[in-house]
Specification:
Rossmann fold, about 40% helix, five-stranded mixed β-sheet
Protein backbone atom coordinates (compact mmCIF):
# COMPACT_ATOMS: atom_id res chain seq x y z
CA UNK A 1 0.00 0.00 0.00
CA UNK A 2 1.12 3.51 -0.73
CA UNK A 3 1.60 5.80 2.25
CA UNK A 4 0.54 8.95 0.39
CA UNK A 5 -2.47 9.91 2.48
CA UNK A 6 -4.14 8.00 5.27
CA UNK A 7 -5.86 9.93 8.06
CA UNK A 8 -6.76 6.85 10.05
CA UNK A 9 -5.97 3.19 9.84
CA UNK A 10 -7.37 0.19 11.68
CA UNK A 11 -4.87 -2.67 11.59
CA UNK A 12 -7.12 -5.63 12.29
CA UNK A 13 -5.52 -9.01 11.68
CA UNK A 14 -6.02 -12.17 13.61
CA UNK A 15 -6.09 -15.90 13.15
CA UNK A 16 -5.79 -18.62 15.77
CA UNK A 17 -4.25 -22.07 15.99
CA UNK A 18 -7.02 -23.46 18.21
CA UNK A 19 -7.92 -26.17 15.73
CA UNK A 20 -4.41 -27.54 16.20
CA UNK A 21 -3.92 -27.10 19.94
CA UNK A 22 -7.26 -27.86 21.58
CA UNK A 23 -7.54 -31.54 22.37
CA UNK A 24 -10.72 -33.16 21.12
CA UNK A 25 -12.68 -35.56 23.32
CA UNK A 26 -11.37 -38.63 21.49
CA UNK A 27 -7.78 -37.42 21.21
CA UNK A 28 -5.00 -37.94 23.74
CA UNK A 29 -3.79 -34.86 25.58
CA UNK A 30 -0.51 -33.60 24.13
CA UNK A 31 2.03 -31.11 25.47
CA UNK A 32 1.53 -27.52 24.30
CA UNK A 33 2.75 -26.77 20.78
CA UNK A 34 3.08 -30.46 19.74
CA UNK A 35 0.37 -30.24 17.08
CA UNK A 36 1.57 -26.94 15.67
CA UNK A 37 3.58 -27.40 12.47
CA UNK A 38 6.27 -24.96 11.40
CA UNK A 39 4.05 -23.79 8.53
CA UNK A 40 1.13 -23.15 10.89
CA UNK A 41 3.43 -21.22 13.22
CA UNK A 42 4.75 -19.08 10.36
CA UNK A 43 1.22 -18.45 9.10
CA UNK A 44 -0.14 -17.13 12.42
CA UNK A 45 2.98 -15.00 12.97
CA UNK A 46 2.70 -13.70 9.41
CA UNK A 47 -0.94 -12.68 9.72
CA UNK A 48 -1.07 -11.51 13.34
CA UNK A 49 2.34 -9.84 13.68
CA UNK A 50 3.81 -9.22 10.23
CA UNK A 51 0.47 -7.92 8.92
CA UNK A 52 0.40 -5.27 11.63
CA UNK A 53 4.09 -4.36 11.25
CA UNK A 54 3.89 -4.05 7.46
CA UNK A 55 0.59 -2.15 7.65
CA UNK A 56 2.04 0.32 10.14
CA UNK A 57 5.23 0.66 8.13
CA UNK A 58 3.19 1.51 5.02
CA UNK A 59 1.23 4.39 6.60
CA UNK A 60 3.49 5.89 9.26
CA UNK A 61 5.82 7.84 6.90
CA UNK A 62 2.94 9.78 5.32
CA UNK A 63 1.29 10.43 8.67
CA UNK A 64 4.55 11.70 10.16
CA UNK A 65 5.21 13.88 7.13
CA UNK A 66 1.75 15.49 7.49
CA UNK A 67 2.11 15.51 11.29
CA UNK A 68 -1.33 13.95 11.68
CA UNK A 69 -2.91 10.53 11.81
CA UNK A 70 -4.50 7.86 13.92
CA UNK A 71 -3.72 4.15 14.02
CA UNK A 72 -5.82 1.67 15.96
CA UNK A 73 -4.42 -1.84 16.22
CA UNK A 74 -6.50 -4.83 17.22
CA UNK A 75 -4.63 -6.72 19.92
CA UNK A 76 -6.64 -8.93 22.28
CA UNK A 77 -7.40 -9.66 25.89
CA UNK A 78 -4.76 -12.35 25.22
CA UNK A 79 -2.17 -9.57 25.54
CA UNK A 80 -3.01 -9.44 29.26
CA UNK A 81 -4.22 -12.89 30.28
CA UNK A 82 -2.99 -16.34 29.29
CA UNK A 83 -4.95 -18.34 26.73
CA UNK A 84 -3.71 -21.87 27.52
CA UNK A 85 -5.37 -23.59 24.55
CA UNK A 86 -3.59 -21.27 22.11
CA UNK A 87 -0.27 -19.95 23.43
CA UNK A 88 0.92 -18.84 20.00
CA UNK A 89 -2.14 -16.61 19.56
CA UNK A 90 -1.29 -15.09 22.95
CA UNK A 91 2.31 -14.60 21.82
CA UNK A 92 1.20 -12.70 18.72
CA UNK A 93 -1.11 -10.40 20.64
CA UNK A 94 1.59 -9.67 23.25
CA UNK A 95 3.81 -8.74 20.29
CA UNK A 96 1.20 -6.40 18.82
CA UNK A 97 0.68 -4.76 22.22
CA UNK A 98 4.44 -4.31 22.60
CA UNK A 99 4.68 -2.73 19.17
CA UNK A 100 2.01 -0.17 20.07
CA UNK A 101 3.79 0.64 23.35
CA UNK A 102 7.15 0.94 21.59
CA UNK A 103 5.89 3.23 18.82
CA UNK A 104 3.86 5.56 21.05
CA UNK A 105 6.51 8.09 22.12
CA UNK A 106 8.12 8.54 18.70
CA UNK A 107 4.81 8.86 16.88
CA UNK A 108 3.57 11.41 19.44
CA UNK A 109 6.40 13.71 18.30
CA UNK A 110 4.56 13.89 14.94
CA UNK A 111 1.03 14.11 16.39
CA UNK A 112 0.33 10.58 15.21
CA UNK A 113 -1.75 8.65 17.73
CA UNK A 114 -1.46 4.88 18.02
CA UNK A 115 -3.60 2.80 20.34
CA UNK A 116 -4.85 -0.76 20.70
CA UNK A 117 -8.20 -2.32 21.31
CA UNK A 118 -8.05 -5.56 23.25
CA UNK A 119 -11.33 -7.42 22.88
CA UNK A 120 -12.31 -10.52 24.75
CA UNK A 121 -13.88 -13.35 22.79
CA UNK A 122 -15.85 -12.16 19.77
CA UNK A 123 -18.51 -14.22 18.02
CA UNK A 124 -16.85 -14.74 14.63
CA UNK A 125 -16.11 -17.76 12.43
CA UNK A 126 -12.65 -17.76 14.07
CA UNK A 127 -14.25 -19.42 17.11
CA UNK A 128 -14.60 -23.19 16.59
CA UNK A 129 -17.17 -25.29 18.42
CA UNK A 130 -14.46 -26.68 20.72
CA UNK A 131 -13.23 -23.14 21.45
CA UNK A 132 -16.82 -22.08 22.19
CA UNK A 133 -17.03 -24.90 24.75
CA UNK A 134 -13.77 -23.77 26.37
CA UNK A 135 -14.97 -20.14 26.49
CA UNK A 136 -18.27 -21.25 28.01
CA UNK A 137 -16.31 -23.13 30.71
CA UNK A 138 -14.64 -19.81 31.56
CA UNK A 139 -18.07 -18.26 32.04
CA UNK A 140 -17.40 -15.41 29.62
CA UNK A 141 -20.04 -14.65 26.99
CA UNK A 142 -19.07 -14.02 23.39
CA UNK A 143 -19.30 -10.41 22.18
CA UNK A 144 -21.02 -9.23 19.04
CA UNK A 145 -18.72 -7.74 16.41
CA UNK A 146 -20.58 -4.41 16.63
CA UNK A 147 -19.20 -3.91 20.14
CA UNK A 148 -15.67 -4.11 18.73
CA UNK A 149 -16.58 -1.67 15.94
CA UNK A 150 -17.90 0.72 18.59
CA UNK A 151 -14.66 0.33 20.59
CA UNK A 152 -12.58 1.28 17.55
CA UNK A 153 -14.75 4.38 17.04
CA UNK A 154 -14.34 5.23 20.71
CA UNK A 155 -10.55 4.85 20.55
CA UNK A 156 -10.42 7.16 17.53
CA UNK A 157 -12.66 9.73 19.24
CA UNK A 158 -10.81 9.68 22.57
CA UNK A 159 -7.37 9.74 20.90
CA UNK A 160 -5.27 8.58 23.87
CA UNK A 161 -1.80 7.86 22.52
CA UNK A 162 -0.52 4.44 23.57
CA UNK A 163 -3.85 3.45 25.11
CA UNK A 164 -4.89 -0.16 25.38
CA UNK A 165 -8.68 -0.37 25.50
CA UNK A 166 -9.98 -3.62 27.00
CA UNK A 167 -13.30 -4.57 25.45
CA UNK A 168 -15.54 -6.95 27.40
CA UNK A 169 -19.12 -8.03 26.70
CA UNK A 170 -21.75 -5.38 27.37
CA UNK A 171 -19.29 -2.87 28.88
CA UNK A 172 -17.77 0.38 27.71
CA UNK A 173 -14.09 0.08 26.75
CA UNK A 174 -11.81 0.07 29.80
CA UNK A 175 -8.51 1.97 29.63
CA UNK A 176 -5.76 -0.38 30.76
CA UNK A 177 -3.35 1.55 32.95
CA UNK A 178 0.29 0.91 32.09
CA UNK A 179 2.80 0.52 34.87
CA UNK A 180 5.08 3.52 35.31
CA UNK A 181 8.66 2.34 35.40
CA UNK A 182 11.64 4.36 36.67
CA UNK A 183 13.40 4.86 33.34
CA UNK A 184 12.86 7.00 30.22
CA UNK A 185 10.20 5.90 27.75
CA UNK A 186 12.19 7.23 24.80
CA UNK A 187 15.86 6.31 25.32
CA UNK A 188 18.32 7.82 22.86
Amino acid sequence: ASHDHFDLVHLNAGITTHRQVLDGPEEPVQPPLQRLTDDEYRRIMGVNVDGVVFGARAVIPGMCERRAGDIVVTASIAAFVPIPPDPIYGLTKYAVSGLVKSLTARLAEYDVCISAICPGFVDTPLISERAREWIAELGMPLMKTQQVVDAVSSALTRRVNGAHWIVLPDQDPILHEQAVLPFPTNPQ
